[in-house]
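Lecture 7 notes: from sequence to structure.

We start with a single chain of 90 residues. Read the sequence below before looking at the structure.
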Amino acid sequence: MGHPVLLMAAIDKDLLSILICPESHQPLAEASAELLERVNERIQKGGLKNQGGAAVDAKLDAALVRADQKRVYPIRDGIPLLLVDEGLAL
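Now the structure, written as tokens:
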């Protein structure tokens, strides 16, 4: 599970400190390996949809989680997808 760390290393810590949830404006933090594992289990089982209603079938290697732990935003190719529709309910 070293892969998420490699992707997050591409996001500068100063930048991470100013990123916020596009929906609630709460701060975001790096998702833990345990949280990623739980989300990926849901993706593998099928039926997980993002806030926009699109089915999510690609495993998350990294993500940002909202301060209240109710939403996670994928990071794809080192880029956080900070759009309301991309959020996944936890």
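Helices lie at 3-8, 13-18, 33-45. Keep this in mind for problem set 3.
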